[in-house]
Amino acid sequence: MPEKIESADKIGSVSVHRYEQIVAELRKIVEAQSRGQFTIGDHALEIEPMREQGPQERGDELFTVKDSLFRLAEDIGLSYSQVKQVRWTASRFPEEHRQSGVSFTIHRILASIEDEEARFLAIRTPPEGKSRWTGDAASRRVGRPVVKPVTPQEKVSAIHTLAREDAVAAVITGDLLRRPAVVAQVRQEDRISAAHTLVEDEKVAAVVTGDLLRRPTVVAQVRQEDRVRAVEELTRDENVAATVTTGLLRRPDVAFRAMSDDTARHQVNHAQVERGRQAREEFERTSPVAPAVKRIDRSVEFLDLITACHAFVAASGRVVPGLRDRQLSDDEKVIIHENVARVRATLDWIETAVDTGKVDVDGELARLLQGE
């Protein structure tokens, strides 16, 4: 059936006047029921008074107490839990502190107030601005969940109560996370914690990370050391690393800064030499014209070597006379001597290659040629 809508002159299906008549009649019934429940509680107390909890006792759960109350409940047609509850409520509100016009339910809720004076004062004092206690008002007074949440905190508590089951909580969380206005109000640390939890599965984490790395504004906020570590992880595959490095070295500023690193520069030079050597070996192994070209190469190498020696002698002949009457600093002398040592080692290497045909470079010579 469709829900009844209250209007200015009707409540549900009855007029306001008729509603007030019904309320007045029901209040009398509720008061009579309250007296009846207190009567049951008082008689249950007469049969089994409340006992102090001792080292060998467990309060109302003491076997003899439970046995007596269970028998009473069966004899009057109530459940054991009902009899136990009314007995406890009656013990918390002696007859002189019970309030006429206040339901037994309100007495039961406020009975959980531990301090006796505060409990008796509470049952006599409705909330500020109200003439009567309500069930929700009493629950608020003792910190229990309310039936009709009003404040944000009450609504939050109600949601937590409804979402105690993980399956229910998961559905609610998913629904809420689809509302941008809700997500925007979540504390940053809670967002981070939730994000970590959601991406515990490595496949999910991989997809999310890929999506985030496509957002420049996100990447721009990542700390430099984290970016470096991420790039190192992402380029562990040599094919990926080669592609990324090639792209980076096409950027002049990046290439310049990279070549400022001695190790990187030597590795690039070594790679170029190695690539040339491999290409040459491939050509010599597979090309039918390789033997003829090899003979020409040897002639070219002879001419190149003669040219290099001639160029060195000619350059030295032009430069050395300019040192007449010039005093070099100690640092300049050191640099000249180091380079002369490299030249001398190179000349020895040339003579060995010419005399023996061996062009291998030992470790010491390699270091000299590399300026180490």
Q: What distance separates the N and C termini?
A: 94 Å
Structural class: mainly alpha
Give the uncertain stretches in residue-range form: none
Sheet having the most strands: 2 strands, antiparallel
Tally of helical runs: 19
Index terms:
single chain, mainly alpha, two-stranded antiparallel ribbon, 2 strands, 19 helices, 372 residues, rod-shaped
Topology of helices and strands:
Elements (H helix, E strand, L loop, with lengths): L9 E2 L2 E2 H32 L15 H14 L3 H13 L11 H7 L5 H9 L10 H8 L9 H11 L3 H12 L2 H4 L4 H11 L3 H12 L2 H4 L4 H11 L3 H12 L2 H8 L2 H25 L3 H30 L10 H27 L6 H7 L3
Antiparallel strand pairs: 1-2
Helix pairs in contact: 1-3, 2-3, 4-6
How is this structure best described in words?
- This protein has 372 residues and is mainly alpha-helical.
- Among the domains are: 139 residues, no CATH class; 40 residues, no CATH class; 44 residues.
- It contains 19 helices and two strands.
- It has a two-stranded antiparallel ribbon with strand order 1-2.
- The radius of gyration is 47 Å and the shape is rod-shaped.
- It starts with 9 loop residues before the first strand and ends with a helix.
- The mean pLDDT is 81.
